């Protein structure tokens, strides 16, 4: 089959228009690198969370939230000082240096409890920042109609990285050790920076079709505003506040399930290396399911029925799962709900969430979005972690926790439908406001 025909068939399969296939493939590859590196480190994070004590997880979640509060204004200040096209260089360069430092520390003090705790908090911050910035880039490079057609495919790159990362982690953790995995993750982060340059060049040639964009939309300029303008922009917009509430409810459902998973794995697998392999195996299954849905289902749903269906499907399934756990709790059902929630988040929720920002201005895409993805998300983690701890302290059983989770999932789904409907109405490229 001629190469041109293969490219044409691939473009039709993913919904790419004329000239969009190369940029979509580069976006796919960028997320493959980011998530391949992160998912090599994620099993180490989970093991270290257990090493520092499952009963201390809510403290680690709270520490992550505090670090986010300190970090977000600093990164927003950087975003206001450097041209938008170079912002990722600075952010990813900083995290690369961090990875090199942790690699050295784990070689020097491999059994340190405090190092385990610091790394757990750091990688929770790292993950949200590098992914949020990458999606800000995608929302900057692709306009709203392109986002609906291409974001599910681009998100599939994250699933491929999520598949290869756990496999590499399980395979290389013994010969390379944790420090070696961190060096490899730093290398992949560097590759992601190189891929960003292609996307910005494609955007500059008119790939996203933005004729008449004002100076604030020029990627050679810094994003306007002050270090706190992301927060103030969110507070001034009902649309962005709705996205914030959606993210908090997502975090609540995720945290309830995550705490129970950590408790059960700690009880069943006391060896740290075995825990790394178990978490790697779970991640592999989740990413495989997410990849299939992203490639063959999610994009078609977005094109045919809009963003609202992407954002309501998973909360509806999680609601049913929590009701089932309240009526007949079991490990098998918990595992099924956890897998459905995580697959759905990667395949439906994440690309759907990013589509909500595609029609907005640069300050919303970078600063407001970064505030939501980091401070709001980790704030939801911390709040739900303490709520779960309070329910445990009051002696409430798994059934009560499941009922609270079901109520949150119901509200989560309603918000998803409302936000998705608004985003579908705003999908015209000319719309550039946040409220």
Give a structural overview.
Helices cover 83% and strands 0% of the residues. The longest helix is centred in the middle third of the chain and has 61 residues, at 144-204. Residues 210-216 and 428-435 have low confidence and may be disordered. It has 13 helices and no strands. The chain has a single domain, classed as MFS general substrate transporter like domains (Growth Hormone, Chain: A, Up-down Bundle). It has helices at residues 3-14, 21-51, 57-81, 84-108, 113-141, 144-204, 229-235, 238-268, 272-305, 307-327, 331-355, 362-393, 398-425. The chain has 435 residues and is mainly alpha-helical.
C-alpha geometry? globular
Share of β-strand residues: under 5%
Total number of helical segments?
A: 13
C-alpha termini separation: 49 Å
| Second CATH tier, the architecture | Up-down Bundle
Count of separate structural domains? 1
Structural class determined from secondary elements: mainly alpha
Q: Would you identify the regions where 5 or more consecutive residues have pLDDT less than 50?
A: 210-216, 428-435
- Percent of residues in helices comes to over 70%
Largest sheet: none
CATH topology name, in short, is Growth Hormone, Chain: A
How many E-type strands?
0
Please trace the helix and strand order, writing H or E for each element. Answer: HHHHHHHHHHHHH
Radius of gyration: 21 Å
* Global mean pLDDT: 80
Instruction: Find the CATH superfamily.
Output: MFS general substrate transporter like domains
Write down the CATH class.
Mainly Alpha
């Amino acid at each position: 089959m001629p190469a041109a025909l293969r490219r044409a068939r691939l473009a039709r399969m993913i919904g790419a228009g004329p000239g969009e296939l190369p940029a979509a493939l580069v976006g796919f590859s960028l997320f493959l690198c980011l998530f391949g590196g992160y998912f090599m480190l994620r099993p180490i994070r989970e093991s270290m969370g257990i090493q520092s004590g499952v009963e201390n997880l809510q403290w680690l979640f709270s520490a992550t939230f505090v670090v986010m509060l300190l970090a977000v204004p600093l990164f927003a200040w950087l975003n206001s000082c450097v041209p938008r096209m170079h912002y990722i260089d600075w952010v990813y360069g900083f995290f690369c240096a961090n990875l090199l430092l942790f690699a050295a520390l784990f070689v020097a003090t491999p059994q340190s409890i405090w190092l385990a705790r610091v790394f757990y908090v750091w990688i929770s911050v790292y993950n949200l920042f590098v992914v949020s910035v990458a999606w800000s880039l995608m929302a900057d490079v692709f306009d709203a109609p392109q986002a609906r057609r291409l974001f599910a495919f681009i998100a599939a790159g994250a699933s491929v990285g999520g598949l290869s990362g756990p496999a590499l982690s399980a395979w290389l953790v013994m010969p390379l050790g944790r420090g070696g995995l961190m060096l490899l993750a730093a290398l992949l982060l560097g590759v992601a920076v190189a891929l960003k340059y292609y996307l910005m060049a494609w955007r500059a040639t008119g790939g996203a079709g933005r004729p008449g964009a004002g100076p604030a939309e020029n990627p050679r300029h810094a994003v306007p505003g002050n270090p706190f303008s992301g927060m103030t922009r969110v507070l001034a917009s009902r649309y962005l506040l709705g996205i914030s509430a959606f993210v908090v409810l997502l975090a609540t459902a995720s945290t309830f399930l995550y705490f129970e998973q950590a408790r059960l794995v700690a009880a069943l697998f006391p060896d740290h290396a075995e825990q790394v392999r178990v978490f790697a195996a779970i991640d592999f299954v989740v990413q495989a399911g997410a990849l299939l849905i992203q490639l063959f289902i999610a994009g078609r749903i977005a094109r045919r029925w809009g963003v609202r269906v992407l954002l309501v499907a998973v909360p509806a399934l999680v609601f049913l799962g929590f009701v089932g756990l309240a009526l007949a709790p079991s490990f098998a059902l918990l595992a099924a709900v956890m897998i459905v929630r995580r697959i759905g988040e990667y395949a439906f929720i994440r690309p759907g969430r990013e589509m909500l920002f595609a029609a907005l201005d640069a300050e919303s895409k970078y600063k407001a979005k970064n505030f939501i993805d980091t401070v709001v998300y980790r704030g939801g983690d911390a709040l739900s972690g303490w709520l779960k701890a309070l329910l445990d302290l009051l002696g409430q059983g798994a059934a009560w926790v499941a009922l609270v989770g079901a109520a949150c999932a119901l509200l989560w789904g309603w918000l998803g439908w409302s936000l998705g409907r608004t985003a579908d109405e705003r999908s015209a490229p000319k719309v550039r406001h946040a409220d």
